[in-house]
Amino acid sequence: MKLLELLDFFEGIAPLHLQEPYDNAGLLTGDPDMEITGVITCLDSTEAVIQEAIDNNCNVVVAHHPIIFSGLKNLTSANYIQKTIQLAIKNDIAIVAMHTNLDNVFQNGVNERIAKRIGLQNLKILKPKDPTEPLVGSGMIGDLPSPQDALSFLNDLKTKMSVNCVKYTKIHKQNIAKIAVAGGSGGFLLYDAIRQGADMFITADYKYHEFFDANDRIIIADIGHYESEQFTIELLSELINDNFVKFAARTTKMVTNPVNYL
User: Structural domain tally of the chain?
Assistant: First the structure.
């Protein structure tokens, strides 16, 4: 099966026109006419993941984050991006990124996967791109099956999202019922979460002073960038394996999180 067929399938799941203007999703290296031997899914297409693909006779790497985000002026092995691209090209490895286009879809998207893992119901897009398309936009919001103690929920969140720590703001109300989520750097959605009546906003990459913006109106819970999006790896693998039988998709065994915790 040719790579073009997989790209067309992804276009039906998360069309490239839904990516944010700053993004660089889609085919980054490789020939659409190449025959697929196997696929590895990952969050970050690092040099180690490319080598993993080579070692497992997989010539396609499907990542969430684009390894090429801004323009490359040379390929001299000066940094991890250039080394990764060189290794991929030398070994005819195609790299595909499904980034903010996958963030911005309701079904089979990044935020739906988070919402389902933590047990939310009555899901809807937190910030629709267009009022006429309520199934396209940023973040997601939903209800817990029943109100829960906020601190107990945070402890459960660590388990359900497999995180080592949660940074959170003051628990200004004992019980919570409505939760907003945004995989990755979702701080720009805070006021949308407040306007939608969320009791808690789960996201990542909050800076110190930004936590003050909760202002006793909402609980911010920062679970880490990699941690918030890590289940996108299995999402991508499931989408491929559930729809194609001519080749296998496997999830990477590499933990590409650059952040460590003590």
Answer: 2
pLDDT tens-digit readout, 24-61: 999 999 999 999 999 999 999 999 999 999 999 999 99
SS3 letters for the chain? CEHHHHHHHHHHHCCHHHCCCCCCCEEEECCCCCECCCEEEEEECCHHHHHHHHHCCCCEEEEEECCCCCCCCCCCCCCHHHHHHHHHHHCCCEEEECCHHHHCECCCCHHHHHHHHCCCEEEEEEEEEECCEEEEEEEEEEEEEEEEEHHHHHHHHHHHCCCCCCEECCCCCCEEEEEEEEEEECHHHHHHHHHCCCCEEEEECCCHHHHHHHCCCCEEEECCHHHHHCCHHHHHHHHHHCCCCCCCEEECCCCCCCCCCC
Co-location of 50 and 127 in the same domain: no
Note whether 61 and 113 are same-domain residues. no
User: Can you give the pTM of this predicted structure?
Assistant: 0.95
